[in-house]
Structures are given as C-alpha cells and as structure tokens.
Amino acid sequence: MKSLKLLKKYMLKQLFLEAHLCKNLKIILSQFIGTKYAIGVSSGTTALHLSMLALGIGPGDEVIMPANTFIATPWGPSHAGATPVFVDCDPKTWQIDAAKIEDAITEKTKAIIGVHLYGQPFDIDTVKKICNKHKLFLIEDAAQAHGAKYKTQQLEVLVKWHVTVFILVKT
Asked: Is it true that domain 42-163 has CATH number 3.30.1360.120?
C-alpha cells in the first residue's frame, strides 16, 4: 500500500514536524485511513481541546473518559472549561469499562472520550450505543493506535470524531 509506505517515511524521519510537508502528510493520512479530510494541529492536547470547542462543549459541561489515560485526554476538555469525569477501566483490557459508563452520566454530560491504549481499541460498539441512547458525542483518542482495527474495520472510520497524534514514542 503506497500510502502506508509514505506514512511510515514521514513518521520515521519526523517529516511531519516541517510545516511545508504537513499538507502532504494530511493527504497521505486521509488516504491511509480512508477519510475525506485530515486536519493537522500542534498536539493531541490541542486536537482534543479544539474538538471540544467545535462540538460546543465548555463551562458547565462534563466529558466522560477512562481513568487510565495520558494527561492530554482530560486537558482537552479542561482547556475548554468542561469537567473531566473518570470511569474505571476493565482490569482485563485496561480500556474504559463500558458497563460503568452509564452510572457516570448526568444532565451535564456532553461527550465520551474513548481511548485506544497500547494499540488495543476500547469497546466501540457498546460505547456508541450508550452515546446514541443519551445523545452524546463520541470522540476517539487513538494516539496509541495508528492503523489498529476494531473487529475488521480500521479504527479511524468508526466514529465521527477521531483524534490521533504523531509522536514517535506513541506511534
């Protein structure tokens, strides 16, 4: 796959750090994940923060996320003025425990951030059902899961809001 080879080249040489090459990376990334668009920003924290703003999430709102995550996950909503709400993780997968999410939902809850840790996806199907039932946004934080699959599908095309990052210790 040509886009995979080009993506690997960019990541290994850290070419995405050069502004004039960022446009090419966005094109390559969108081809690799099969989406129409990819938008580049300075960091995963910034991507999550801008996601909150774009979705209208701010002061007085709550965003559910796994307790086992990197600090950028709660920083995104916090920078927008929202309150992170942590849900415990499944001890077998270390992903958010979908069975505990509904207990954390309040009238202030606006979104759930699912984090794919160690290249392993969270239970997208169950979390999507919960989001649909409660009319919540679902955001994927896939900083540690480039190209990973959930069942037979690539992660990046399973939800409407997907955030990833290119830091070599994560990719």
From this structure: no
